[in-house]
């Protein structure tokens, strides 16, 4: 049973470009959560999605960031016009139902570097 | 201002000895605390939790202690094994049912054979 998969594992973008991060949840999981870890800081919740719906985006920056979880395919976290401050590790987690953080299964993360 | 602090970025311990990882928090409304372990190239995995109604929770070699008056918790690993080498994060929240956990920056533990 494959775990949560994220790709790419490493992504380098120049300032102003777009970054697309993908997350495939565990089989049977329809709930996806995105977290960000800035350098020297802890993980912070960004957004929670269920298939085709954004349930909670209270941690998402208001501009340039968007997330989707279509009926088919992986969840996508999209960052437009990236800036150096977007450099971070982005983790997604999944669960079979709405759960608290400690019941979610985390992927290995995507490390985004903005040059 | 970080609400959850792990002031030791790294810690080295000899195999078989005790590892003590510390975590301090500032928000007195935090009532639920977690510890996660993260290996390189993997996501964080939940290790152990404690709620504010307890001051100790034990699971095998792992014990978490909570001192609410000092706003301090610690994770003890006894005996430490090389496979325990990882980054350990503590996290805290006012409730245990949401995504509002505040994570610390992590402590890298190295257990030396």
Number of strands of chain B: 11
Distance between the termini of chain B: 37 Å
Based on secondary structure, the structural category of chain A is mainly beta
Major β-sheet annotation of chain B: 6 strands, mixed
Morphology of chain A: globular
Amount of beta strand of chain A: over 45%
What's the helix-strand series of chain A? EEEEEEEEEEE
Total DSSP helices of chain B: 0
**Largest β-sheet summary of chain A:** 7 strands, mixed
Helix-and-strand structural type of chain B: mainly beta
Number of strands of chain A: 11
- Percent strand of chain B equals over 45%
Overall pLDDT level of chain A: 94
What is the terminal separation of chain A in angstroms?
36 Å
Mean pLDDT over the residues of chain B? 94
Shape of chain B: globular
Give the uncertain stretches of chain A in residue-range form.
none
Task: Describe the protein in words.
The complex is a heterodimer of chains A (115) and B (113). With 115 residues, chain A is mostly beta strands. Chain A has strands spanning 5-7, 10-13, 19-24, 31-37, 43-50, 53-56, 65-68, 75-79, 88-95, 105-106, 110-114. In chain A, strands 2, 4, 5, 6, 9, 10 and 11 form a seven-stranded mixed beta sheet that branches. A four-stranded antiparallel beta sheet of chain A has the order 1-3-8-7, with no helix packed on it. Chain A is globular and about 35 Å long. The mean pLDDT of chain A is 94. Chain B has 113 residues and is mainly beta. Chain B has no helices and eleven strands. In chain B, the strands form two sheets. In chain B, strands 2, 4, 5, 9, 10 and 11 form a six-stranded mixed beta sheet that branches. In chain B, strands 1-3-8-7-6 form a five-stranded antiparallel beta sheet, with no helix packed on it. The termini of chain B are far apart. The chains are: A mainly beta (115), B mainly beta (113). The A-B interface holds A 3-4, 9, 33, 37, 40-45, 48, 56, 59, 91, 93, 100-103, 105-109 and B 2, 4, 34, 41-46, 49, 89, 91, 93, 96-106.
């Amino acid at each position: 049973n494959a775990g949560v998969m994220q790709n790419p594992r490493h992504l380098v973008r120049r300032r102003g470009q777009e970054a697309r991060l993908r997350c495939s949840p565990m089989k049977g999981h329809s709930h996806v959560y995105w977290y960000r870890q800035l350098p020297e800081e802890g993980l912070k919740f960004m957004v929670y999605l269920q298939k085709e719906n954004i349930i909670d985006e209270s941690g998402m920056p208001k501009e340039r960031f968007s997330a989707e979880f279509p009926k088919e395919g992986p969840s996508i976290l999209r960052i437009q016009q990236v800036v150096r401050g977007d450099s971070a590790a982005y983790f997604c987690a999944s669960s079979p139902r709405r759960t608290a953080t400690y019941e979610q299964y985390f992927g290995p993360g995507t490390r985004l570097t903005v040059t | 201002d970080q609400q959850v602090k792990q002031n030791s970025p790294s810690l080295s311990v000899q195999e078989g000895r005790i590892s003590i990882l510390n975590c301090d928090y500032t928000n007195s409304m935090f009532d639920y605390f977690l510890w996660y372990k993260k290996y390189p190239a993997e996501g964080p995995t939940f290790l152990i939790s404690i709620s504010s109604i307890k001051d100790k929770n034990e699971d095998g070699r792992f014990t978490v202690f909570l001192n609410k008056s000092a706003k301090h918790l610690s994770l003890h690993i006894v005996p430490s094994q090389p496979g325990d080498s990882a980054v350990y994060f503590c996290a805290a929240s006012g409730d245990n049912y949401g995504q509002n956990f505040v994570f610390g920056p992590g402590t890298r533990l190295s257990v030396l054979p």
